[in-house]
Amino acid sequence: MDAYQIYALCYAGPLEGPGALTMWNRDWEARGQRAYYFWCLLGPGGPVVLDCGVGPQQAGERGLPGYLSPVELLARLGVEAAKVPHLVLSHLHWDHVGGAALFPAAQVHVQEAEWRFWNEDPVARRSVFQMLRDDQGLAALEAAQAQGRLRLHQGDAQLLPGLELIAAPGHAPGLMALRAAAAAGPAVLGSDCGHTYRNYAEDWPSAFICDLPAWLRSMQRLRGLVQRPELLFPGHDIALSRDFPEVAPGVTRLA
């Protein structure tokens, strides 16, 4: 089976904040850095994009430092966002779904549990979840649904040869990871199941967990899907920008 090349695209950051954001109930006095990413996989079925950042309007409204348009970042890989065939959304928080309208031709893949939570569960309208909601991104998904481009998945599914969707709830009701065949072995893009490598290494969540028992099961499962821990990639660790080869400004190759 042909291998996929996996790239991290940093669309904002780094930002500094309390260490307890990424290590739940720890590091209250410490400061930590985080960055905002989406990912692109190039291979026999590619390009496949995991998550989509946010558009310029949302970036301005949220005051994201160092913002770069996802469209521009993909162009540095020779990928045209408007022609991407598959957009996988790990979950529907603002920083992962806000740029969905930038991918008007893509089949959009979401876990059904995640879709139903944000669209049907009254709890999703409570203030603690409103801070994570992005109405523009959700509206873009409703448009994709009307156009027949939205695919809702129930649990694991094969996306393409060498690419597998993995249900990993906990951070969000329907978080979904992506497992890919890579030259170094199977790699997993876990998105925010672990915000940093430290979350995986210490079996400890971030502050943003909606179902802790589910998260613990998902964390254990994702760790078991890779042969080496460095092939399980977190969602917001600045190491993705710092410790991997840069192929273009804001773009690093992970595997």
Describe it for me?
The chain is globular, with a radius of gyration of 17 Å. Strands 6-5-4-3-2-1-13-12 form an 8-stranded mixed sheet. The chain has about 260 residues and is an alpha/beta fold. The protein contains 9 helices and 13 strands. It has one domain (about 5-255): Ribonuclease Z/Hydroxyacylglutathione hydrolase-like (Metallo-beta-lactamase, Chain A, 4-Layer Sandwich). About 25% of the residues lie in helices and about 25% in strands. The relative contact order is 0.19.
Number of helices: 9
Give the rounded overall mean pLDDT.
Answer: 96
The secondary-structure class comes to alpha/beta
Rg computed from alpha carbons, rounded to a whole number of angstroms:
17 Å
Measured distance between first and last alpha carbons? 15 Å
- β-strand percent reads 25-35%
According to CATH, the homologous superfamily is Ribonuclease Z/Hydroxyacylglutathione hydrolase-like
Q: Report the order of strands and helices.
A: EEEHHEHEHHHEEEEEHHEHEE
> Which second-level CATH architecture applies?
4-Layer Sandwich
Overall 3D form: globular
Helix fraction, binned, reads 25-40%
